[in-house]
Amino acid sequence: MRYQSIFRPDLFANKTIIVTGGGTGIGRATAHELASLGAHVVLAARKLSNLEKVRDEIQADGGSVSITSCNIREEAEVKALFDFVLDAHGKVDGLVNNAGGQFLSPAEFISLKGWQAVVETNLTGTFLMCREVFNRYMNEHGGVIVNMLIEMWRGFPGMAHSAAARAGIENLTKTLAVEWARSGVRINAVAPGLIQSSGLDNYPDAAKVFIDQYVHDIPMKRMGSESEVAAAIVFLLSPAAAYISGESIRIDGGSSLWRKTWEVPEHENAPATFDGFR
Ligand code: ADE
What we know:
Layout: E1 16-20, H1 25-36, E2 40-45, H2 48-60, E3 64-69, H3 75-89, E4 94-97, H4 112-141, E5 143-148, H5 160-179, E6 185-192, E7 195-196, H6 205-215, E8 224-225, H7 226-237, E9 248-251
Parallel strand pairs: 1-2, 1-4, 2-3, 4-5, 5-6, 6-9, 7-8
The structure holds adenine.
């Protein structure tokens, strides 16, 4: 059965759209939705095995898809990805910078290596993908880019590295929206809150208990779905968003407006240490 998109059929007919990290989770849902709407989707990720599964699923639904391995942290591999896509299709109408990753850890336990891995994958990888798609195609022909954030505007206790990297991506998105408007490039971002996605499988059981608790602090009292994030990405890629650039959309059930994700125990370690009038 084809993916049940709420957008109109053929919305992306004749469009070539790259989705990084398209083998799992939100990337997979986005790939299915775009293919169901007529796009040729190019899926790129480090490991081919997940991509092969999604390719087979999309082809079984009658969609058009190709796959290639690419580590977005490696400049040479990013350049090779665009060689691959431009040789085969001659164009890139859209780019979804979905690939990324992080791990849960209080900040004081994050090693330099762990910090660098998360920042390089999320922030540097996104930058390299944006720069190459612009230089290789969109500078001359225009296009649309959607970047992936997490909902991190009040900080993100437990994932300091990813929140810092995503805040960087948010700012990069704004800068590029202005610098590249002259070329007809739009660039936006989505910021998922707690999503019932395959990404959660990577978290330890202790974190899963915490996640269940966290659901109670979401105004909508549920997790979001991969499809609900994919729909926002597809909207931003579509002409319906033709006058939107540099924007970030939260997809979080209202949780950014009302949440308590980090227990601060009772303590007396923050006394007032001065009073200028005494
Ligand atoms: N998914 C997670 N990390 C990635 C990376 N470095 N390159 C491509 N896809 C990824």
